[in-house]
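User: Please predict the structure of the protein below. I'd like the answer in structure-token form so I can feed it into my own downstream comparison script.

Assistant: Understood. Taking the following sequence of 517 residues as input:
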Amino acid sequence: MDFKVNCESIPLSESVFSGTQEQSVELEYILPDYFPDIFKLVKCRIIPRISSKNISSDKAVYEITADIRVLYQNEHSNILHCINQKLSYTKTIDFSRPCENAEVTLVPKLDYVNCRAVNQRRLDIRGAVSIKADAVCMRNQEMICDAFGMNVQLKKIPVEYVARKISAEKTVNINEELELNSSKPSVLGIIRSDVALSANERKVIANKLVAKGEAVIDILYTYENETGNGMETMQFTVPYSQIIDADGIDETFECITEPEVTLCDITAAADSKGENRIFKCDIVVSISCRAYKTAVANIVSDVYSTLYPCEFSSSLMRSERMPVVMNEKHQAKSIAEYNDGSIKCVSDVWCSISNISIKINPESHEAFAEGNIQYSVMAENEQGTVMLIEKDEIFEHTIRYDGIAAGSIVSLRAKPESCSYTLSPDNKISLKADINMAFTINTAEVFNAVTEIIPDDSVKKIRDGDYALKLYYGIENEEIWSIAKKYSTSVTAIMEENDLECDRLKQNGMILIPITG
């Protein structure tokens, strides 16, 4: 048998883990002696962060940190106090099969938190966080791209695939001492400290990726001096950059970088005069990089022989395409009301985002995102009582991308960039939040690939008559390949005989089918 098959090795992605892991958070906390007694709990929040991860051939081990922050007041003062504690937990993901260089994605979120004062010196905190975990591994699949001999006819389809993927990750430490503006009072205690990452830039050089960005630090703190007490805000912008080693990367790769805060410790420190006018910042940013290079292969999806019986095996394959990131700006608005008196002043506003869900519409190539945005307003009434006003609002955002189809997976990372307010005389607070929305669109091509061809040269096909041409009535949009396969002739012969220019019939009508040997 004079028959030869050529194959090409195509890397395909395979999920080795996809699921959600849960972790309870429990803390019984006794106040240190230098903290005043608890009279009123104002707010308890937990910020979950992935602080580290280690990936081996059969599992991934990671550490999740629950950053617990409790705001309270004592009985004899309106000054807010903040308790900050961190709890760390180690979790493991077991892969379904051994895998080298697995790509692991971890997205933590807070499920709930409850806090109660057992007595004036003891807190009981209960909560839970969950981690959406996905691990993907690349495996090489041999696919038939050509065959010769035995009068074999091949139907080929172009398949775009990720020919090479490089994943790398590195942390950058931001250790800064930031000084208060001279017009601001000295720090008594820090109430809120949050970090937002912006201006994500990247540049590829040989075997390395340079990532740059800015850390925007927002701080709300209390003060007490001869004029009284109150709260003040400060904002600092600190640039950062890091060189990430990525062996094999060059300008031909398309890169996606995702910076994430894994640690945020901000404390007040004394200056040379002994006044708390310095913020010591210890921030760790983890920068993950994924680089892709795509290629196109012509894969055999169907086969027959014009002379011999020909059996073949095929299977459905799924080829992942390079993810597409769409950055969108969303402006959300809401109104918060206070009905127990008059608002004297607003000290700070901020917001957080949770409960994101996404639905796709393959017909319109759209993705619909919905989530909850919680506005927090730290204010003071006419009696000088500090209060936290919170307002929840649903936000919706729609994107359109031609590549969104059935089977596409769309994820969203939504981060508030800024939050502002306007206070009206009728105690209504108009709130506005600017949100950066980074949509990641993962698409794949599902196709039928021939995996084995077995022509039988021991016997020839038996035709239904001895003729060189056959009349055939074709219908509009009918595939020439199907006609040629049915009558054991070639696509080229039919197209040449009938002066056809495309691989489908443009209209109903008679065509001539030449019988080839």
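That's the full token string. The chain is about 5% helix and 70% strand.
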